[in-house]
Amino acid sequence: MTEEPTPEPVVPAAEPQPPAPQAPRPEVPRPAAPSPAQLAGRKPSVRPAVSTSTGPDPASLAFGRVDTDGTVLVRTADGERAVGSYPGSSEEEALAYFARKYDELLATTALLAQRLQQTDLSAQEAREALKTLRAHIGEANVVGDLELLQRRVQEIETEVGRRAEGESRRRAEAKVVATTAREKVVRAAEKVAGKDPATVQWKSASARMRELFEEWKSLQQAGPRLDKPVEDELWQRFTRARAEFDKTRRAWFGKLEEEHESARREKERLVAAAEALSGSKDWGAGAGEFKRLMEAWRRAGRAQRATDDALWKRFKAAQDAFFAAKDEVVAAERVQFEANLAVKETLLLEAEGLLPITDLAEAKRALRSVQDRWDEAGKVPRSDMQRVEGRLKKVEQAVRDAEQQRWTRSSPELNARAQSMVEQLEKAVAGLERDLASAQEREDQAAVARTEQALVARREWLASARAGLSS
Fold first, then answer.
1. What are φ and ψ of residue 419, in 5° steps?
2. Sorting pLDDT into bands at 50, 70 and 90, what band is 349?
3. pTM for the whole thing?
4. pLDDT band, very low/low/confident/very high, at 310 (cuts 50, 70, 90)
5. Where are the domains of the chain?
6. I need a surface site. Which of 199, 226, 336, 447 has the fewest CB within 10 A?
7. DSSP single-letter state for residue 42
8. Contact, 436 vs 448, CB < 8 A?
9. 300 and 270 in contact (C-beta within 8 Å)?
10. Buried b (16+ CB within 10 A) or exposed e, 249-267
11. In angstroms, rounded to a whole number, what is the distance separating the alpha carbons of residues 5 and 307?
């Protein structure tokens, strides 16, 4: 069966309206209480906590009555107040209409409480929904337990307060975590910026700075907003570290560019000197000059890699050309020196055959012939020079010694001095022998030891003097 339409209820503005003498045009009722979706601005995610049947809750009806003039009244703690009228309907129908409106408000209140318990509804959203609900409850003309409704609203408000405190606490904790993360990024940037430029690997350090900047942006986008003074202070530190790093990097590479340019000029000068020297035939002086140029090259530092490599290639080519020519000459000289060595080895055998010297005049003549041919033979290998020269000098020294001895023997003055020395030593030996005999008679062991030691020395001197005199 289809229900017949009923006239719209009349809701009083300020005080109850008397019934009209004739069937007047019904007033438009106030809109029903908003749904939870309207209150929260989104579709509810929980099921309603109350029945959605059209019949009012009998408990709500107990809080209302219909006056004799048709006005519907609701009982409150402050007494009864009029909520409206429903012309053309029975008292039960009028009362049921306003009770259903109460049930709708109560259901909306219960649904909001349920959403607070079962969903992640934010405190801000709940507060806005509760504000709208309060506005409707304050203006609503309904029949029901208004005190219960107010208690439910108060419970929701308490829960919203707890949720707000929890959210505030979580936001504070999240800010601490976010601040720590940002501080870590800032300290890492300051560490990179504070390194000694001479120890920095600039490519990896620059990449690290870019990573830190991207990490900062990621934290800023994903994390909670920090307190403005804290965020400003961290951002200023981070910006200073990046600016200091960039400034140091530019200064370092500027200085490095100057050093490269200075090294390039110096090495170009050294290359020019090496290329001019590469054709020299003065092997000794040239080798020394190339050694000096090489030392100067090491002290000059490095130019740009490509430039430095090209200059070194030219320097090395000039150096190799000089020493290759020198090695060719040295190889040819080595062959000649080996032949000269064979000649001198033969001359040494001839010179050493003069020893021992029996005929000084013949020995001197033969040695002069060897010396003349020795000089004509020329140079020998450096490794053999000292050996062959030493052997020839021994023969030359033997000839000089023989000549000195002959001169000594033929000098009357030297012979007289030698004879006088022999006589003096003979007297000294005789005196020491007497002293030794006397000390032995006295059994003076200390005197005996001293005298014997002195006697041995004098006897040796005497023997040498006699030998020189006889020769």
1. -65, -40
2. very high
3. 0.45
4. very high
5. 36-169, 172-258, 264-325, 333-409, 413-470
6. 199
7. S
8. yes
9. yes
10. beeeeeeeeeebeebbebb
11. 102
